[in-house]
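Example 3.2
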Amino acid sequence: MQYKRILLKLSGESLAAGEGHGINSSRLKEYAEQIAEISRLGFEIGIVIGGGNIFRGLSGSAKGFDRYKGDQMGMLATVINSLALASAIEKEGTTAKVMTAIRMEPIGELYSKPKAIESLKNGEVVIFSCGTGNPYFTTDTAATLRGIEIEADVMLKGTRVDGVYTADPEKDPNAIKFDSISFAEVYKKGLKIMDLTATTMCMENNLPILVFNMDKKGNLKKVLSGEKIGTIVT
């Protein structure tokens, strides 16, 4: 299937590149190069990136933070990552815009669907930050929401594994990879691709998810060129 407009979901932890926290400059540059490359090929790109390399609300609440405040801190962490990614993409010669779910000009433009779609059509990479703007929702759910709103053809979930497996391949060497799987099977097998809210929203709005290894340079272009890598969930 040929995609034109995509929603790319990136993990904040992946930006740390194994360092545990913070932003690894080499990983950031690799991501920016891959994104700029497909932008030049004519793909319209929306991005949501998590904030787990800086602060994760849910884990913060386990350490004594109020969940509401913890999630707000997590939203701000996504803004930091979004600004870093936008800067790196622009260094590659591609225009990038950060939109925020919470008003915070001049750091980013307040999100609206019409403005986002206009920017995408103009060839800008649009990075959606602050999650949904509400506590108790993950950035996976935010990515799903934005993907549906901008009428993306697919959500590309960039992870550190190369698809969906019967079990965690980093823990179970006997885990078997799926080339494709239905949302119904995901529920039946209890597979944790994203949280249940995000998965259900994708299913109900016919937004397919393609899970692939973003940390392997060149994979983003391969996925969009139709190479059989990753796992498609429909």
